[in-house]
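User: Show me a protein chain along with its predicted structure.
Assistant: Here is one chain, sequence first, then structure tokens.
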Amino acid sequence: MKNVTKISGLAALGALAGLPLWAQEAAAPLAPYTFEQSVNNGDVAWMSISTVLVLLMTVPGLALFYGGLVRSKNMLSVLTQVFAICALVSIIWVTYGYSMAFTYGGSLDTFVGGFSKMFLAGVDVNSKVATFTNGVYLPEFTFIAFQMTFACITPALIVGAFAERIKFSSLMVFVVLWVTLIYFPMAHMVWWWGGPDYLAQEQTALLIAQAAGDTAAAEAAAANLAANGLLWNWGALDFAGGTVVHINAGVAGLVGCILVGKRIGFGRESMAPHSLTMTMIGASLLFVGWFGFNAGSNLEANAITSLAIVNTFVAAGAGGVAWMFIEWAMKGKPSLLGLVSGVVAGLVAVTPAAGFAGPMGSIVLGLVAGVLCFLFVAYVKNAFKLDDSLDVFGVHGIGGIIGAIGTGILVNPALGGAGIPDYLSQPGTLQVAEYVASTAIMAQIKAVAFTLAFSGVGSFILFKLVDLTMGLRVKEDVEREGLDIAEHGERAYYM
């Protein structure tokens, strides 16, 4: 995932231009940048564990978390939906999804990758991908597997928004369309870049070409430096998926719950969770798996990984405490559902900031997310009469927005943040760029606005297309009977 911000070649040259003339004249001529690709077995081991942890978040974590929140007659349907999405998307990912997300896309490269690695063409045990340290690489299969878990969990998050009333066949078709046209392009736009050595190579080539007055070579190097995803070039920071995963899925869920419509009896009949015990187990698995989700996104086992682990832990705790106490104050009792929802809200909010913020900033982020997500779920959602069954937008959408914007603030070293990385001012080394609040925060706001619009409009079109061709919603008698028997021919419980 991404933990660098693109600094333009011209900006880097500006630092050189600020040197005294005699210093520039005395500098030795630049040589082309060369590097070796080194694989650290410790990094591979950590990333393999992180991959398994993120899979644990989906099955059984998310499946049990969602399953416990629905009525018993729909428990099995939710388990089936989440498990089926995980299986389906894993096949799509290695078929063409990885290529669309993480390869060069030619004239469309700003928005989406190409098909050069369709069916994993050209990938073998010797191929490698860059991490965030010059000279440090991962086996490409390791990176493919890790990113596959993100592709699986993101569409699975969406189903909670319209649980208990969507047709299984229509959901499967929607998921295929959504990951293809929404998720893969978003992953490319946020996380596609060449890696630190590629940037150093092209930045050095640019400096050499400019010093030699070679306009054509300078233009080619500048074009290569700009061959990144759209949001990456904007300087948007997203360490582990605030935009790509949480806002993306949250907005899709909001659109879906509106278009599918309210459950029969919504607002009149009790629709209480049938097993908060299952929900607590699922939430605990999400909590544990999230360390792979966030800390694994560093792609290496180093100090930033340790920072992400601490940030994930304390933001989750802060989110849970904030939700618990505000619910206690406003509704009279602290609930288990509120506590685990707050923990998830804190985890969502810290996701884009996990490797950028400091621990104290992460606590603040969790506290803010716990309070604002509670207020949305408890009051705003009801005011608009939204039947977002399991609060996908209220937790993932709102929490993701808070986290994404907050990242632009908390990355500031003056607030304990790690600072915005700069790979270009001194090619081949990692520097910390000067923090400019207006630039950093505006980049985050632009990324949030783009994700809301892209996912919102795109998801609306896809939901409508499926609805017009297949119908999104089950029949009334099926909904009343429960989706377990009517859709799958079995029950979650036989008692």
